[in-house]
Predict the structure.
Amino acid sequence: WEGALDDPHAEFMVHENKAVGKSDLTPDRHLAFWHLRYTLRTVPHAPSADGGGGDGRGFVSVPPPAELDVPAFLLPHVDMILTTGKYLNAIRECGQHVGGSHLSGSLAFDVQGTYMQQISAAHTAASSRLLQLLVGDRQLLTLLSSLKHYFLLDQGDVLVHLIETAHEELDKPTKEFSTTRLQSLLELALKTSSVASDPLADNVSFEMDPRSLEELARAAARSLVPHAQTAAATASASSMAQSAGRASVLARGGVGGGMCGGSGRLADAVGGGGSGTAAPTGARTAERMPAWHFFLLTYKVDWPHTLVVSPVQLSHYQVIFKLLLEFKLAERQLAATWHRTASASRTSEKVAFGQRFRIRRSPLPSRSGAGAGVLPWPVREQPMVHSVSQRLTFFVQEFLRYATFDVLEPSWAVMESRVRRALSVDEAVSQHSGFLEAALRGLLLTRPRVTRAVCALLRLASTYCTQINRRMDAAEGGVPQRSPAAPLDLGELLRSVDGQLSLLVSELQSMYEALMHAEGGGGDADGGGDGDGLDADELAAGREELERLQSLMQRFASVQSLAGQDAGGCGGLAFGDLKLHSAAGAPATVLGL
């Protein structure tokens, strides 16, 4: 048994599509080489030999929906046979010798079912060999750790160096930034950060994707289909490939794409796709937006690591990175705006104190303009400015704490431990896929309404910072305080923040109740399954998820009451460092990035 198929007359139950290469993808961006290179041969509309009955020896002939051209006595083991061959072929594709005591000899039918033991032994041996190759020789865990550095930001200084190094380029409008310069700045940021010694750092690149966080989250949620649906889709594509006799169902392109993901999506969005036609209104708007809005890291995953980290799973890492990036940028922007308004507030207080007690002193020269240090809004509105800032900062910091310490780190530790103890490739792949699914669910990215509320709060944070800074710029430039150059309705903004926070807590409550229903045996959170069939690990994971959600709801629900304390006088807000206290009583200090 060598993992090779020699079937010149197309008689074997396994069909090989030689047109499928290792870098090809299915239409839904799964690895075509694994799913479509070797498939079970189908006979469309073939009648059942015995009407689905047995043969008197314990073997039941129940043809699957696609009507497989498979001997009846092998139907119960057909998936194991196909998977074993794929394992052996993957080992061959890595340039390794295939052989061993369990991978030799012929397979013959006997009434006692000895052939079934041979099939099982061969599957176990092939799986162990491939797992040893992946985890040992090809250092799968090193690759996963590298992905964690860049996409899950376990080394926070990576993003700090990137922002400090490339902010000028990424602040430019989309149509003006240079991809070559940005790639150079990205490489410089990595080399000056704590991951400079990462041997896989050269695999990191970037792409510009015009889709918003909500759109990326919806795409990721759609890709988390049940295994049965994935298998049905693969069988359908297999049938198409066999009938066409060519790889017409494949989406050509290397894993990880190129600077624009191999699809030119950004070019289509901002330049009309190179067709010479005028760009639509949305595209013209995208041209004026900073490149930050479209920036995504990408990663070159080579064979055979693509068996574990497929392009679809890499896109899941990208969605998580997009979420963390937007929150980190919002935190940085809020911190910078806070320090600016706090400095102006202290200056205004000193001026008011001097005027009250008629203290006269020579004014110091201003380096920022004629009106530097002057608040561009009435003093009575200053508490409202701080209140909006406090609400948004508390939300951003609490979500980041929840994402990193409650969701990503615990889930990663469990996944890494189980991959190290895995006994087969199937188990390692399943653990990694389970981690990504748990991470997307834990980060609320599989719930469109929750994601929409989170994105709305991020947009409000951006709006607040932009308008506050415009008003400050106008004041420092000598523009009269009541100039309509930078209108700002603080009351409306505060009501919008409160409304979105209330909506988010309400959606989290609904999610919590659905999980409680599943935990009690009424099915999973999406309405299916049976809680009584969960094993101990799944039950423990479900309880942990409930506890995390409950804690997050309590902290978000406390934002309004906490912020209300400072509306009249600074209550729980210390204006020196902007110290906030969560529901658990732990201080959280804004330090930017």
Summary: The CA atoms of residues 419 and 428 lie 5 Å apart.
